[in-house]
Amino acid sequence: MSDLDRYLQAATRDNTRRSYRAAIEHFEVQWRGFLPATADGVARYLVAYAGELSINTLKLRLSALAQWHNSQGFADPTKAPVVRQVLKGIRALHPTQEKQAEPLQLQDLERVIAWLDAQAAIASAEQHRAELLRVRRDRALILLGFWRGFRSDELCRLQIKHVQASAGSGISLYLPRSKGDRDNLGRTYHTPALQRLCPVQAYIEWINSAALVRGPVFRSIDRWGNLGEQGLHASSVIPLLRQALERAGIAAEHYTSHSLRRGFATWAHRSGWDLKSLMAYVGWKDMKSAMRYVEAEPFVGMARLQEKALGQ
Fold it and tell me: Which of 82, 109, 201, 285 is least enclosed, having the fewest CB within 10 Å?
């Protein structure tokens, strides 16, 4: 790979690149479309999958097709009026409610952490190194993910050299890039130590137990307690979280890695954080993105209106 190709590849996130590649393959192989495509061809492609794929998936497919045409020097057919009108019609005739992850409520966070603490005590007493490492890794990952509002890929890309933790004080975590950091400027996140459910102490206990000094923070652990060299894959966070929740007695089928992010946003909102502070802490750029993650209490506003009407 040339230096030019290497820099061009680095400009696009790995997840986006994989998604675009799969979208182009779907267009060419499954639908048997031709590239470069015409506006009419793209419109017919949308119609073919209008009732099968969600509007967000169709928009992703359009983005992939647009990127392919632009990178190859062809005119972008996805910007044609007919394509925009077809997409608008699909949205009108196939309305769908956006599926969102169940937010992890604070009481369930307390429950799963209490279970992990109990498992750590048992593993320590039985000198079961692999189980002790898994429990402490999962505890640190869940607490950091919740209190810092991190996405799964951000958790998995954390590097020890970019983390500074001080027991009883706080933790700073630097991410060279993230989904919201379009220009790859990097950002440092800070989280204070807490009296309970503390992400700082959980991180320190995990790092010390695993004797880690460099490389990824969160890694795989085999049955003998050997740690992997590479960081966990983002897709492994969902089964890891669900397994911990289920073992703690919590029905986990509706939880995903976004449950940690939504859980914190919901907790902060109900705890009185103003939206501006929440957006700054988590890293949201616009209010629409923030509100998608906040689990509102639907009847609170109505109750207040009723109290006002009754003069209470």
Answer: 285
